[in-house]
Amino acid sequence: MDTITLTVKKVPEIYLECESLNPDTFAGKTGDQIAKLPAYQGKEMSTLGEYFTISGNAGATAAETKIIVNGDCSKMKYIGAKMTAGEIVVNSDCDMYTGSWMSGGKLLVKGNVHSFCGLALKGGEFIIEGNAGNYLGAAYRGDWRGMSGGVLRVKGNAGSDVATFMTGGEMIIEGNVDIHLGTHMEGGKIVLKGNANRRVGGQLVKGEIYVFGKINVMMPGYKKTGEVDLEVDGTKARFTEYIGDLGERHPKRKGETVYGKLYMKK
Amino acid sequence: MSEYIIKNGHVFDPVQGIKGDKKDIAIKDGKIVDKVGSSAKTIDAKGKTVMAGALDIHAHVAGPKVNAGRWYRPEDKHFDSHKVPGITRIEGGKSIPTVFKTGYAYARMGFTFVMEAAMPPMYARHVHEEIHDTPIIDEAALPVFGNNWFILEYLKNQEIENTAAYIAWILRQTKGYGVKVVNPGGTEAWAWGLNCLTIHDPVPYFDITPSEIVTGLMKANEYLGLPHSMHIHQNDLGNPGNYTVTLDTLKLAEGIKPKNNFGREQVMHSTHLQFHSYGGDSFANIDSKAKEVMDYVNKNKNITMDTGNVTLDETTTMTADGPFEHHLHALNHLKWFNVDVELETGAGVVPYIYSPNVSVNAIQWAIGLELALFAKDPMRCFITTDHPNAGPFTRYPRVYSWLMSKKVRDERLNTFKNADKVIGATYLAEIDREITLYELAQMTRAGPAKALGLGKDYGGLAPGMNADIAIYNIDPDKFPSTGADIEKAFANVAYLFKDGKICVEEGKIVDMGNKHTFWVDAKVKENKQVMHDIREKFLKYYSVNENNYPVPESYAPHQHILTVDAVQ
Fold it and tell me: Which residues from chain A sit within 8 angstroms of residue B76, using beta carbons?
């Protein structure tokens, strides 16, 4: 695996759209070629080279390419968006759309990410060491296709509307979330280690949500069905099981209605 | 204005019957002329195909329901919103592109005229605002009449003269081009939670049937002698077994004769027939009745039709057929937009994904192609995707590749997930016909121009006609063999002349041209009854004042008015 290092030499005044900053675009290119890749500010096009010092070379394929980004990226969008393989480590905060539409590889952000990150994640691993904003791992505005695969882990807190329209994959939030977790969910698994505010699993059709902390106000559409012992993300504990959202349509399988599940740690 | 001479190109022009011969085309002052002076700029078209600019007879490209699609589907334009170098503005959107992309993308494919297929009269201003903002291409819009209260009341009593006077009034108020009918009676029934699924289902309250509405509107259209015929989206769209309703509707044209000074020979244009040519009685056993429908169309010269080809893309369906959109939403559970337009019409919008893995979608794809391949008279069968309903108009090059190459369409047909089922339910596998470049020029140029009553000036390359010319990088002697090559050639013209000006060069927009809005001004003798009814309805029912209803000149500053005298 070849490593290429990008160091911020100029912090953009207006948000910079870094759709080119991923192993797929970098693959097979030299540092000079990468410096010429486009980066947008609104309708103005500039290049990655204008904002980054680039050292090293990319690998022949995305899978053989590791990108390390140093410096302040808090005004940069789309880092790692649409990546299919390889690795990115960002030693900074990042702005919107970081790791969105990712379908493979590994993306590690050592700082915080803003809203709309990890949208419609399909595969791969996206780890955020700091906090995440709103709409983490949700569907894009207007879209009905949210996170469908892969693993998304936040070590800090996340905002509201996390995992909207989730259909698959696994999301772990080690801190707390605000309102609207897993709205319209139709599959997949959410593990919340901290607390949630309100409206967890609203209009949830299928899928599982595990909550280690407390939910401020529980949705009325959930019904307690019993208690189970489970191992969730390495923690063995006893959980209270609920089914829901009873206000939503639910599919049938072999004559049995399939409900979403909500587990609250005792 | 500059002079041009296009030399050595292979010319395809149904108006003059030129089938690929090498011929020079001279242009002066925006018109095609016999010859130009020696100072004329030469365009070398050696090894290229020269045709008139194409006309799209049916697309939804401007107005409130298109815009509803845009605002409620931000996801449709997320990934293609960057400015590219050049004189163009940012282009966005796939199935519901921005007005700018609409103009550029049509021009790049060689189109110079597009008909907006459904204009709600009350929102005509919005339609014209968007038309005005769409660069390069000429456009017109068809106001919808099939569920309008005035029409329903006049036709219940078979008052053709009053119907005609009202149509003439609406065309002038809305700067409209002709008579569009969408699910006659059905959209009004939808306001009562019902629908009209055959041509004999009565409309609630008004107690009139779709059959009476369609017949009456055809008669009123010919009474006025409008350039275009009545243009119909039939009842029972999209349902298995609907071809019998389709044949019933087509038969309504029997015995009605065209009467106009524009060279039009049809009295009914039946649009997106693909959605109306289904057999079977459920989506499990749906099959193609394209042959049955086209057998009828082929025999009856007073009917024209367009295909409505499914392109197998994610798209946004939108129609004034409100009940159909609710039905579609119940099938796919995707977001549904619905609106009622007071006394006039309604509309619905629902996203839809045509998947090659779903056999119904693949059968729809095959039916659309069959319609064109069964057509005996290419001057009466036009290619559309009913943009964006069966697919985005940007897919025309791909549709052409399926129609023009048996190899390309068989590759698609044989690789469907349920290929055997699709082949069993359709005729396509047995059809060997390949549409020629000459037939394509008939189906996309001369044919639609004639059906729209524009055949004198548009759709051909004869001296005196408008200099709207598309030159493609296609050598007819070495026609591209792969689907990708055919698509590429039709997607990017070598040159597009619009009104004698080069607007596109090698797929790049170089000039915004002089776009015009076409509309029809029909003069009728003063009709006190109709004017009284209009005044009364505005006082009693409309939410707008009659004086705020018309589209002012400023909304369509570059007009091309076709005048019709029906005073008699």
Answer: 142
Q: Give me the number of domains chain A comprises.
A: 1
With beta carbons less than 8 A apart as the criterion, state whether B63 and B123 touch.
yes
The interface pTM score, or ipTM, of the predicted complex is 0.88
Share of chain B above pLDDT 90, in %: 97
Topology, domain B3-51+458-509: Urease, subunit C; domain 1 (2.30.40)
Chain B residues with beta carbon closer than 8 angstroms to that of A45 = 82-83, 85
State CA A34 to chain mean position distance. Answer: 26
pLDDT digits (tens, 9 = 90+) for A174-216: 999 999 999 999 999 999 999 999 999 999 999 999 999 999 9
User: Which among A40, A44, A141 is the nearest to B74, CB-wise?
Assistant: A141
Among B75, B83, B334, beta carbon nearest to A140: B75
Residue A239 counted as domain residue: yes
Query: What one-character DSSP code corresponds to residue A118?
Result: S
- Least Cα distance to B6 among B554, B488, B497 occurs for B497
Residue B532 has pLDDT above 80, yes or no: yes
| pLDDT digits 0-9 by tens, B449-467 | 999 999 999 999 999 999 9
pLDDT computed for residue B1 by the predictor:
61
Mean pLDDT of A108-117: 98
What pLDDT shows up at residue A159? 98
> Cβ contacts (< 8 Å) between A144 and chain B: which residues?
334-335
For residue range B339-355, list pLDDT tens digits in order.
Answer: 999 999 999 999 999 99
Sequence-separated (6 or more) residues with CB below 8 Å from residue A121: A99, A100, A101, A102, A137, A147, A148, A149, A150, A152, A169
B interface test, pick of A19, A43, A205 with most B CB neighbours within 10 Å:
A43
The DSSP bridge pattern shows strands A76-77 and A52-56 to be unpaired
pLDDT value at position B490?
98
Domain that holds residue A120: 112-265
Interface test with B, best of A144, A164, A165 (most B CBs within 10 A): A144
Tokens of B155: 């036709």
Position A21 in a domain:
no
Domain assignment present for A96:
no
Does residue A22 lie in a domain region? no
Domain ranges within chain B, ordered by starting residue: 3-51+458-509, 139-451, 517-566
